[in-house]
Design a protein that fits this description.
By secondary structure, the protein is of the alpha/beta class. It has two domains: about 1-125 and about 300-365, NAD(P)-binding Rossmann-like Domain (Rossmann fold, 3-Layer(aba) Sandwich), CATH 3.40.50; about 130-290, NAD(P)-binding Rossmann-like Domain (Rossmann fold, 3-Layer(aba) Sandwich), CATH 3.40.50. Helices cover about 30% and strands about 15% of the residues. The protein has helices spanning about 20-30, 45-50, 60-65, 100-110, 125-145, 170-185, 195-205, 215-220, 300-320, 325-330, 330-335, 345-355, 360-365, and strands at about 1-5, 30-35, 55-60, 70, 90-95, 115, 165-170, 185-190, 210-215, 230, 255-260, 280-285, 285-290, 335-340, 345. The model has no long low-confidence stretch (mean pLDDT about 95).
């Protein structure tokens, strides 16, 4: 198979889906690898390093798309790339299909085979850990007086208390933020709707963190004492309400900070909208907002190394065994199949966008096989099936 490593073109994105070491593994498995020129430069991997591991460096974006059977990148398919999509070609990247209807339509129109990376990680994406940890640090940067924040130091000084931080959501992202802030001495409260998770986190930190159930009312009750709030909740896209409204921000002191790591549109924070690394902050009702949508891109080397290592077995599974067999062996690949030759195969996208869909195992003809199990990627369900 001819596999291609694309250069990500999203604003502020420097990550790469494969480092030279993964390229070496793919070449050793008998495949041809093309790497778009400078795909890894922003993460610290030179063209020469890829070439040394057996890749061919390609100057032209169009040649990459025209020459490869299977392409991979980190972030979404950009509108400028829609015209390159073609029938039967496979693409693996963070499509986020439920929230990007135009991207989905381009994928369906092209009749390509699309796999959305964010649903494919059995143990959670390294991007989530990176977003939580680095998001916490960007929140502390936003708290600086020189950036419009109230100027509190995270762990305090002698005679000056440290910061009170609330983390919404105790999953991988929230736990990443918690590990950084706790280590730096912040007084942290984690809010979640899962009492078992709250108990686990409390025990893990020897009851030296606070835990609360996550509702709009409990959030409002602590906002007057909160210096920084970090949103790590993956908000269901069909919901029209918010965990934090613009009016609730008035409960916080001027110069307080809100970091929206989840950054869904729409999401859990009414005042949130996407920003980029070159202009990351804005103020609403006195609260400094940090809402960069690709936080892990700021630590591109470390995130690329972690992401590439975890992704390699999935890519090799598909290349060595074919998509159908890979979807039998790995339920997480199966659940992340987004579109197959003009058919939508992603349940959440069907439920959110009202498009008819077909289950991956049905379109692939593997429903009667013994399939590796995987839980649904989200809570969104759809019975709007394509009628054969």
């Amino acid at each position: 198979m001819v596999f291609g490593v694309l250069k990500d073109i999203k604003v502020g994105e420097n990550r790469v889906i494969c480092t030279p070491l993964e390229v070496a593994s793919i070449v050793a498995a008998g495949h041809t690898v093309l790497v778009e020129k400078d795909a890894g430069v922003g993460a610290g991997f030179s063209n020469e390093a890829y070439a040394k591991m057996g890749a061919r460096i390609v100057d032209s974006q169009k040649e990459m798309w025209d020459s490869c059977d299977f392409l991979a990148k980190v972030k979404e398919i950009d509108p400028s790339e829609f015209g390159f999509l073609r029938e039967n070609q496979m693409i693996y990247c963070c499509i986020h299909p439920a929230g990007h209807s135009e991207e989905v339509q381009a994928i369906l129109d092209s009749k390509c085979i699309a796999i959305t990376a964010e649903d494919s990680h059995r143990y959670g994406s390294p991007n989530c850990e990176a977003a939580g940890k680095q998001g916490a640090l960007f929140g502390l940067e936003s708290m600086l007086t020189i950036n419009g924040g109230k100027g509190k130091f995270v762990g305090g000084f002698a005679g000056a208390p440290g910061m009170n931080v609330v983390i919404l959501g105790g999953g991988i992202v929230g736990q990443g933020a918690l590990s950084v802030l706790y280590a730096l001495g912040a007084n942290v409260t984690v809010m979640d709707i899962n009492p078992g998770l709250l108990k686990t986190l409390g025990d893990r930190y020897n009851q030296k963190i606070n835990t609360m159930f996550c509702t709009q009312e409990t959030i409002a009750s602590v906002l007057p004492q909160t210096d920084m709030i970090i949103n790590c909740v993956k908000w269901p896209k069909q919901r029209k309400d918010f965990l934090i409204t613009k009016e609730m921000l008035k409960l916080m002191e001027p110069g307080s900070v809100l970091v929206d790591i989840s950054n869904d549109d729409p999401g859990a924070i009414e005042s949130s909208h996407e920003t980029h690394h070159d202009n990351p902050r804005y103020v609403v009702n006195g609260v400094v907002h940090y809402c960069v949508s690709n936080i892990p891109g700021a630590v591109a080397h470390s995130t690329s190394v972690a992401l590439a290592g975890e992704t390699l077995p999935m890519l090799l599974n598909i290349m060595n065994n074919g998509l159908e067999e890979a979807c039998v062996r790995d339920g997480y690949i199966r659940r992340s199949l987004t579109a197959y030759k003009g058919y939508l195969t992603h349940e959440e996208t069907s439920g959110i966008q009202g498009r008819p869909w077909i289950k991956p195992e049905d379109i692939l003809g593997i429903a009667d096989r013994k399939l590796d199990p995987a839980p649904p990627a989200t809570t969104t369900r759809s019975t709007n099936f394509i009628k054969k």
